[in-house]
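Reading a protein record of the kind used here takes little practice once its layout is understood. An example of such a record is reproduced below.
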Amino acid sequence: MSALAPESWIQVTDRGLYVPPGGFYVDPTRPVEKAVVTHGHADHARPDHANVLATPETLAIMRHRYGERAGRSHDAMPCGQQRRIGDVSVRFVPAGHVLGSAQAVMEYRGSRVVVSGDYKRRADPTCAPFEPVPCDAFVTEATFGLPVFRHPDAADEVARLLAAQRQFPERAILVGAYALGKAQRLIALLRQAGYDRPIYLHGALMGLCQLYQELGVELGPLHPATGQAKPTLAGEIVLAPPAALNDRWARRLPEPLPTMASGWMRVRQRARQRGVELPLVISDHADWDELCATLQEVGAPQVWVTHGSEEALCHWANQHGFDARALAVVGWGEEDSDPEDKTAAEAAG
């Protein structure tokens, strides 16, 4: 018997990807009875589901962010284990995006579909690296799905940050970094570069950094920036949500030098719009070359592109022998974009 066509058992609905033979959704964008969640960013991990299957780390992140709204029941499944949900076998494989991020590998009647969630291919000391899984259909993001996006080495970007710190000892080096994933990765990269001084944090970043440490990710000495005497922060590195860069909170710092760590800093206009003096191109998503290499490595005949620059990646994939289509799942967002960062910055500022 030949394997089923993937599109015969995976559907795109107004709540996201639905798997009828399992009766569950993957990263549903509205509350559902059964949710399989790939990672903790708010555009993929929504509150108020009845039952949530995710990695232990993703469930911890959801509980931290949503409290009682993180789901009525939780099923923690580490990478490497497997569950049968209805008639579908489900397992998680690391996605390399943030702590706990995983690809959902689903098998049904001889057909295998992998939903990657969000992923990157660069080394990250705070999470397990991406693992390619051969499949019949690969569901991929395309956040940086244009040839202009080729990320530099993150270590080189960190070296630029440290050079600015040495150049301006009278200024606080204020770095905009998203609360989940980017802030912790940047701290870990600074530690790898030999930076052992305390790193100061906006209050909106403190909780998730503490959670990372509780989950075994060592970040070194971290101090709250709020409440410090202004001279204390001269020449120090201060991390804050991007929303705080131009907020009244930043005026508490001595001559802040606004910096931003994001793949979007490749686009000069975005840096200018945020008033960023030192753009750092550090992304937690695959760039153009990595997206293309991943499709070839996975080797799935069908490629389904969910969000980002779908048209460009689909065109490349179709030109290289894949059957590619855009799924346009409404609600899955752009690079690291997390609406909770703005809310948390306002609450903690």
The chain has two domains: 6-148+284-335, 154-280. Helices lie at 56-66, 154-167, 182-192, 203-214, 268-273, 288-298, 310-319, 339-348. The two ends are 61 Å apart (CA to CA). The domain at 6-148+284-335 is CATH 3.60.15.10 (Metallo-beta-lactamase; Chain A).
